[in-house]
Amino acid sequence: MDLPFPPGTPPRHPGPLARFVPPVEDGAVERALAGFGAPGDRVLDPFGASPRLVLEAARAGRAVLVAANNPINRFLIERTLEPFGLSELQSALARLASAPMDGSRLEPFLLDLYRSECGHCGQEVVVDYFVWEKDAEGPELKGYTCPHCNHAGEDTASQADWERAQVYSPRGMQYAFALEQVASRGDPDRAHAEAALAVYPGRALYALTALTRKLGQIDFEPRLREAAEALLLSAFDAANALWGHPEGRPRPLQLSASPHYREVNVWRALERAPSEWALEPAGVGLETWSAGKFPEPGVVAVYAGPVRDLAAKLEKGLIHSLITVLPRPNQAYWTLSALWAAWLWGADAAGPIKVALRRRRYDWGWHAAALRTTLLGVQPCLLERTPVLAFILEAEGGFLAAALAALDAAGFALRGRALRAGEAQAVLAWEAAEPAAGPQPLEGLEARMARAAAESLRVRGEPAPYLAVHAAAWTDLARDRCLGPNWRPDEPNPLSGLVDAFERALERREVFVRWGAGAEPETGLYWLVDADWAALPLADRVEVLVQEALSRTGERPLVEIERYVCEALPGLNSPDRRLIMACLRSYAVEQPEVGTWRLRPEDERAARLADCREVLGLLRDLGTRLGYQPQGEEPIAWFDSRGQAVYAFRVRANAGLGGLLSDEGPPAILVLPGGRASLVAEMGRRDPRLRAFLERGRVVKFRHVRRLADEATLTPDNFSERLALDPPEHRDPQLPLL
Q1: Which residues, in sequence order, are CB contacts of 532 under 8 Å at separation 6+?
Q2: Are 578 and 422 a contacting pair, CB within 8 Å?
Q3: Structural domain span for residue 383
Q4: Are 560 and 639 found together in one domain?
Q5: Alpha carbons 395 and 95: distance in angstroms, whole number
Q6: Cβ(195)–Cβ(356) under 8 Å?
Q7: Residue 665: per-residue pLDDT
Q8: Is 227 in a helix, a strand, or coil?
């Protein structure tokens, strides 16, 4: 049941609307498909949430059919597969810039909306953005670069800035035009559209309505019109008040203005947009789906509508498999999609997703029901045992539970799982199956969840975050089809009974202990009261695997090292990238010009064994010199004249601390190469048990032992003090004891 997690690489070019698109990493889908199906397979994506998923599936030789009911998603998919060239986007921008507007041109007309004065020289400037406090009557700050005195940065907004901002009333003519585009008078969704428009500052709406009107007046060639629509779509996204200041919300979920938001210069946003849409050639085909025809391998066919309508038109058994990124509920994006589609293509185009205007909040029970309904709509065109590969990105407990229960209730059986808790990413493999048996008592499911969570911790060998134990418990039930039969359609949250059972399972104090706990069960790290049978800590195993990966070949890129480690640790224990990077930095040097990592010469096995033998010899000689009786090899202990162990040293080439946790007697002094310092710090950050060990014990570096061996003034009385000292240039701020 455990699958290797397919790592990717963060995209160099995030692409348009990146804060709303599922964060699929480059290469992740292709790697997952290497063990799923075969080139030439006909695959269906029922949700159409990720352009990268269908792109990589086609690159992997699949014939891809995607249902994209959201017109914004559909536009993103099509323009990812057939991207604009930079020259096309620049031509579209130039046409917009030169369009006549009130006796001038559109570009200076829009720039004039953001006219101000330099706070240093008093000359006229064009502001790049204003910063507002939510519900304030005027801006607080303005950011700009003065072409006269070269001042660049932020200044306090002036009274004149306030007066100019108040000219553009949030309820002015531009508001009426923007609202009418979405919902005309008498439309039951008009009040919901009004609420959605509230996240746009009045000046932004004025600029955007001027742009959309001008778009309809310019006689564009079809391809340039689409390029202009793409530019406007980026401006629609940039101009709302969801962009907080200074950092903002990188992936907003609710449609509400940030407490401090950034009002951007709309024309400047248009100028930045070509770089967002100028993507690399996709190398795959694109077509609009037509009944009775399936795309060839390496081609993506897009269906403009819900998957239930598409499934009714497909011959049963035509689809070899489903692959998809399950959408995360996002009230902000779904509502804005309805606005944007109406502004660009009219109210009819927004019709399929206009219902998004009505819902202000999405809970996990609602989302589970929505996923179930969509997946039930696919079943008529599938054969029994049709495989499904589902990516869950931005995973959290509620999302994972909703996905697992929805797929089970829709007639799919879980066959494989992989979780990277540190990155909040999961991959689940399913197959179409017969309906599950009847419901089981929740008391029995609670006990089973507790056992599954506890077993996952024993296998992991170290404390785990909530998402990891949650995934263990819920996937265990999904494997045996225990979720769907306990679906409660008569309740607002059909998963409420299961959710309550799991929370009670984690509250079993005879089984679990929680460190760093807050009020909510999602906080802190979970571990076992009885951990006698726990495996070697996951961090220790990752360190060894990274060493192996580096030793097998001269140089390797990060993604190949991650792949090697994830294949060795499949299922729920896929390590996060932060831990792998800590191991790499401890053992290797990066070759940035080619993007690879190479094992440092001093960390070659033979070199480190020689170092360990040398340091052991130095400690033995040093103990004898100070009047102690050194005994043992590793660990080596120093005994006093009464036969009591005063010091114990563990000389290690690696940072693995798991074996030290059960040590009895005096705290062991861990002696390590200096390059392990940051890795030891990372291990301590991950595991409260190791932090406790580091606090009561001591860690010193090989070079410090060599320095002590050369110190002529060392005595038994000052040894402990000298042991704790390290030259300042080597001191690691994360580990003051090193």
Answers
A1: none
A2: yes
A3: 1-83+279-432
A4: no
A5: 43
A6: no
A7: 57
A8: helix
Regions of the chain where pLDDT drops below 50: 727-738
Q: Quick check: is 519 in a domain?
A: no
Residues 305 and 416 in one domain: yes
Q: Judge if 108 and 231 occupy the same domain.
A: yes
Tell me which residue of 347, 343, 353 sits closest to 304, measured CA to CA. Answer: 353
CA 6 – CA 664 distance, rounded (Å): 41
Strands 299-303 and 285-288, how do they pair? parallel
Q: Which amino acid is at 292?
A: G
In single-letter form, the type of residue at position 318 comes to: L
Residues 98 and 68 in one domain: no
Q: Residues 319, 251: one domain?
A: no
Q: How far apart are CA 69 and CA 223, in angstroms?
A: 22
Backbone angles phi, psi at 213, to 5 degrees: -65, -45
How far out from the chain centre does Cα 578 lie? 13
Residue 713 DSSP code: T
- Residue 210 sits in the same domain as residue 294: no
| Residue bearing tokens 């210069």 | 265
Number of domains in the chain: 4
- Residue 225 and residue 261: Cα distance in Å, rounded? 31
Phi-psi region of 315 (alpha: psi -120 to 50; beta: other; left: phi over 0): beta
- Can you give the pLDDT at residue 656? 83
Residue with tokens 């404390």: 463
Strands 63-67 and 42-45: parallel
Do 49 and 185 share a domain, yes or no? no
Beta-sheet strands, E only, within 129-173: 129-133, 141-145, 152-156
Extended strands (E) in 147-195: 152-156
The CA distance from 170 to 303, in Å, is: 38
Helix 202-217 / helix 173-182 crossing angle, nearest 10 deg: 60
Map 478-518 to HEC letters. Answer: HHCCCCHHHCCCCCCCCCHHHHHHHHHHHCCCCCEEEECCC
Chain length of the chain: 738
Whole-model pTM? 0.92
The pLDDT score that the predictor gives to residue 731 is 42
pLDDT of 667 reads 66
Tell me how far apart the alpha carbons of residues 502 and 447 are, in angstroms, rounded to a whole number: 9
Domain boundary among 276, 304, 320: 276
Per the rule left: phi > 0, alpha: psi between -120 and 50, beta: everything else, 425 is beta
CA atoms of 78 and 333, how far apart (whole Å)? 19
Domain-terminating residue out of 276, 311, 326:
276
Could you give the count of Cα atoms lying within 13 Å of 407 in the half-sphere of its Cβ?
30
Question: Residue 437's pLDDT is what?
Answer: 77
Q: Rounded to an integer, what distance in angstroms lies between the CA atom of residue 655 and that of residue 699?
A: 10
DSSP state of 360: -
Nearest to 151 by CA among 110, 115, 123, 112: 123
**Residue whose tokens read 């790290």:** 525
Tokens 């108040």 -> residue:
166
E strands, 310-424, where? 321-325, 387-393, 412-420
How far apart CA 291 and CA 286 sit, in angstroms, is 16
Please say whether the dihedral angle defined by the alpha carbons of residues 428, 431, 435 and 436, taken in this order, is positive or negative.
negative
What residues does 709 pair with on adjacent strands?
none
Cα 472 from Cα 211, distance rounded (Å): 51
